[in-house]
Amino acid sequence: MRIALDPYMHRHVPLLELPRFVKKLGYDWIELSPRADFLDWWVNPRVYPERLRDFKRALREADVKIA
């Protein structure tokens, strides 16, 4: 079973710092809820290749995966 953190309550943490923050809290998995700097509510997705690449790198460096 995977126990993942939904970081909505920590939405003040910038996206690229989020994987390290999640790991510090003791989680290995993250569940991404909509957030303004990645996928916002009620608007078309605005995930650009650069942001996705940087976020994947931050996940890899923190050893955190998306559930």
Structural write-up:
- This protein has helices spanning 18-24, 49-62, and strands at residues 4-5, 29-30, 65-66.
- The chain is α/β, with parallel strands linked by helices and 67 residues long.
- The protein has one domain (4-66).
- It has a 3-stranded parallel beta sheet, with helices on one face.
- The protein is globular.
- The mean pLDDT is 88.
Features:
67 residues, alpha/beta
Query: What does the main sheet amount to?
Result: 3 strands, parallel
Total strands:
3
**Oligomeric state of the chains?**
single chain
Structural class: alpha/beta
Helical fraction equals 25-40%
Radius of gyration: 11 Å
Strand order, biggest sheet? 1-2-3
String of helices and strands: EHEHE
Rough outline: globular
> Into which percentage range does the β-strand content fall?
5-15%
Distance between the termini: 11 Å
Number of domains: 1
How many helices in DSSP terms?
Answer: 2
Q: Mean of the pLDDT scores?
A: 88
Question: Regions with pLDDT < 50 over 5+ consecutive residues?
Answer: none
